[in-house]
């Protein structure tokens, strides 16, 4: 895959400081501080309602935190628009795949390339060479990703014909087509049948071991987190209750208690 | 590989696909040139009206079909174009070549202004806010009777551009065909461009759009202004062609009619605007010829219900699907 | 301006606002159970008025009986619209329901135009000739009937919705037809009943409106538009707010007409909508499903 020159240069850390989000009285995130190191895959785990999705919403501009700050390197990202987050190569998936139901798989994946667009509307309509070259580049990139995610045979299918698992794949393909520097996955394997899930995990593992992108992976499947994420953060009721090397974190008593409801005493 | 080819198709380098495409275009051009020599003057006139409504309909295809914004002010922009042309001609003796850019500029301004209020909202609220602007326009066009002729409306001179008299049906026909084809080509290109994907994303999933870096508000805004311009130019053509205009061509029901037409034709495809326009113009005519014109309104309501039930995608996409099922796969990529 | 005038304007506004409210009630009820915005609602009501109007001279029926029959017909038409059209459309996809009700609206309009010929008629006066003055304010029995009808319909509705098993079922279906079904609610029956009741209430509204305007195939349109304005601005999934806006619209019109003349009515209403929808903070305008 060709890599493009994007504003985000190489290796910056995303720092979250004392982040809070409250909905009315409910603290969905409560004083969360963490730092996401470049090219490291971070597991984000915790029971239902712990605030995992809320954290992703904040890290993609969909929610403005009620307190705290986020810095990407030196840049203050707190409260920036979704567009600004995308521009910096920070891309998110959704817990329920969000797709263009009326369009084909190919168009859906191409949407991910939107951030690389350099031509105005006039150039697009007149099909100026610069735009056509961009289109070709984007098309090739999408084909490559589609092949990799086993979507090569359904590129011209409308989304409404797909199974749930395949829809998930299309969303992941869209995310990857955007060539994220930091990718935020919200339970990417949930609801997939075992075969597809297996495929997806090996694809993600491949990307992870290439070591070129940072990721946050929200996932309930602990084995999957173990396999993909050397580091993990645990949320419970909006608080960060543990973080560190995944194996250690998962062994901690308070994590087991919060997460598995296991009581050791 | 099959998929590679079918994806490559849309850039027009697909080998046999390309040939077929050429055949369609050539056939179409021949038909366009042959029509004025086949049809009688009155039918030619109706073809002109069809082209006018098709151009306005293309604006709705972009705004509603591509972007998902249901506008009830579409006939108002049509009205702005029509009034500028008629008022310019009647009150100031301006030729069409002058009123067209004026109509264009005023529609641009009006679209840009109304768009500001409408870009944040979608769905029914968007329909309501556009309806409100539409009602204000209608009110003003009735009230400001010194200029607009009030409820009676205005007679409009036939268009005359650079010495060519478009009161002549054949001249008018070629003008309308040229503008109609241009508008259609524009609409296709918009759809098959990056902006087309942004519009589709805005329509289908705001979340998907935003998470891919698409500015939903900007996309809606641009689509709205483009829709207004299409409708305005169509209105400019309309007044000279039809010869007399009055406010009821531009009220809420007119907007609804335009909407119904494109839905019947197929709201997501530019060709749907043509089929819808042809429906609007020719079906009442045929009922009249059969001496049962009073049955037309009932049929049009029932047909709308039927289409939504049986062919929710509209006539054009349904035909294309049928063609594809027949294994001929001649239809353009939808 | 005297107190009398102010009272008079308020009464006038209340009457037209009540009429908007009466049209709106059915729209809200139907939206509750089927999530459909019914553009045909006004014309379904019109069917009641038209039926009653033609039954009296043709069959020599007493007016009250004819009105009752008209309401029954409107209820039936509304029920049929749901069974034959709406319930089938919603399965196909969202957005089409709106267009389908638009088709039904055009269809009903055309039929009435065909049957009744596109002339205008004078409907029964329904008490408009009974006039009296109270505290210097002029009343007629028709105006009082309108306000009372709205109060009675609202009261009955509150009673049914909050105090009966049927009301519980309706509220359950409104929250989620699937869940309601699993708890043993006959969803289809509830839906049918609500559509029929909505049609009958539309009929009540249309009959009252007919007694105040000239009767033709389009007389419901401005009232339907105002009802929708109130519903959409106030929120179709709410009740009190849109109803209050409906009545408020009537009052606004009444005062605007007094201050600025009858010509100002339309711009006043629609400018207000533009301002409200144009400046309301986004969080009131965001649809629930658009939240991540
Ligand atoms: N837009 C919102 N408005 C109000 N409350 C919200 C909103 N979004 C989330 N919440 C609440 O915030 C809390 C955290 O929700 P969140 O979706 O982040 O949990 P989660 O960890 O992703 O859970 P799950 O594993 O079920 O996906 C929950 O109690 C939820 O109900
Ligand atoms: Mg979640």
Automatic annotation (TrEMBL), chain A:
Identify the residues that the record assigns to the ABC transporter domain, covering every copy: 14-262
SUPFAM superfamilies annotated for this entry? P-loop containing nucleoside triphosphate hydrolases (SSF52540)
| GO CC, any one term | plasma membrane
> Among its keywords, does the record have Transport?
yes
Q: Which UniProt keywords apply?
A: ATP-binding, Nucleotide-binding, Transport
Q: Does the record bear ATP-binding in its keywords? A: yes
List the GO molecular function terms: ATP binding; ATP hydrolysis activity; L-isoleucine transmembrane transporter activity; L-phenylalanine transmembrane transporter activity; L-valine transmembrane transporter activity
Q: Which Pfam families match?
A: ABC_tran (PF00005)
Q: Which GO terms describe its biological process?
A: D-alanine transmembrane transport; L-alanine transport; L-isoleucine import across plasma membrane; L-valine import across plasma membrane
The record, for InterPro entries, names:
AAA+_ATPase, ABC_AA/LPS_Transport, ABC_transporter-like_ATP-bd, P-loop_NTPase
Query: Which superkingdom?
Result: Bacteria
Q: Which PANTHER family match?
A: AMINO ACID ABC TRANSPORTER ATP-BINDING PROTEIN, CONSERVED COMPONENT OF ABC TRANSPORTER FOR NATURAL AMINO ACIDS-RELATED
The protein's name in its UniProt record: High-affinity branched-chain amino acid ABC transporter ATP-binding protein LivG
**Species lineage, top-down?**
Bacteria, Pseudomonadati, Pseudomonadota, Alphaproteobacteria, Rhodobacterales
Chain's gene name: livG
Automatic annotation (TrEMBL), chain B:
Coiled-coil annotated spans: none
Q: Origin, by domain of life?
A: Bacteria
Query: What subcellular compartments does it reside in?
Result: Cell membrane
User: What membrane topology was assigned to this protein in its record?
Assistant: Multi-pass membrane protein
Its main localization is: membrane
Which sequence ranges are marked TM in the entry?
21-39, 45-66, 73-94, 100-119, 126-144, 170-190, 221-239, 271-292, 298-319
* Any one GO cellular component localisation term in the record: plasma membrane
Q: Which InterPro entries match?
A: ABC_transp_permease, LivM-like
Pfam families to which the protein is assigned, alphabetical: BPD_transp_2
**Which GO molecular-function terms appear in the entry?**
branched-chain amino acid transmembrane transporter activity
Keywords, sorted A to Z: Cell membrane, Membrane, Transmembrane, Transmembrane helix
Q: Does the record bear Membrane in its keywords?
A: yes
- The identity of this protein, by name, is Amino acid/amide ABC transporter membrane protein 2, HAAT family
Which source organism?
Litorivita pollutaquae
Automatic annotation (TrEMBL), chain C:
Record InterPro entries:
ABC_transp_permease, BCAA_transport_permease
A single Gene Ontology CC term = plasma membrane
**Does the UniProt entry include the keyword Transport?**
yes
A Pfam family matched by this chain, by name? BPD_transp_2
Q: How does it sit in the membrane?
A: Multi-pass membrane protein
**The entry's keywords:** Amino-acid transport, Cell membrane, Membrane, Transmembrane, Transmembrane helix, Transport
Q: Name one GO biological process term.
A: amino acid transport
- Write the protein's name: Branched-chain amino acid ABC transporter permease
Q: Which organism is it from?
A: Litorivita pollutaquae
Q: State the organism's lineage.
A: Bacteria, Pseudomonadati, Pseudomonadota, Alphaproteobacteria, Rhodobacterales
